[in-house]
């Protein structure tokens, strides 16, 4: 757990597979370690996001 959280600190998040969703332009998900909203980069890997549309997309995905 400590290792995973430290990866988050370096900007390397790991998505919960059950929370991964396509919002029309990109993959969005919730990080399984720190629970933050993340989106997938084009080259691969996940980045934390504060984009409002992504946050809303994740909320609707939980219903
Ligand atoms: Zn994280």
Principal-axis shape equals globular
Tell me the number of structural domains.
1
Overall mean pLDDT score? 87
User: How much helical structure, as a percent, in the residues?
Assistant: 25-40%
* Major β-sheet profile: 4 strands, antiparallel
User: How large, in whole angstroms, is the Cα Rg?
Assistant: 11 Å
Distance between the termini: 27 Å
Bound molecules: zinc ion
Structural class: alpha+beta
Order of helices and strands: HEEEEH
The proportion of strand residues reads 15-25%
Q: How would you describe this protein?
A:
The chain has 63 residues and is α+β, with helices and mostly antiparallel strands. The protein has one domain. The chain is built from two helices and four strands. It has helices spanning 2-9, 52-62; strands at 21-22, 27-30, 37-40, 46-48. Strands 1-2-3-4 form a four-stranded antiparallel sheet, with helices on one face. A hairpin with a 6-residue loop joins strand 2 and strand 3. The longest helix is centred in the last third of the chain and has 11 residues, at 52-62. It is globular. The termini are far apart. The site of zinc ion has 6 residues, from loops. Zinc ion binds at residues 8, 13, 31, 33-34, 36.
Task: Name a few traits of the molecule.
single chain, 63 residues, alpha+beta, four-stranded antiparallel beta sheet, 2 helices, 4 strands, binds zinc ion
């Amino acid at each position: 757990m400590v290792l995973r959280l430290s990866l988050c600190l370096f900007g390397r998040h790991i998505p919960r597979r059950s929370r991964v969703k396509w919002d029309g332009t990109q993959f969005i998900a919730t990080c399984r370690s720190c629970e933050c909203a993340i989106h997938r980069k084009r080259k691969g890997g996940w980045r934390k996001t504060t984009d409002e549309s992504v946050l809303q997309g994740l909320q609707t995905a939980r219903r």
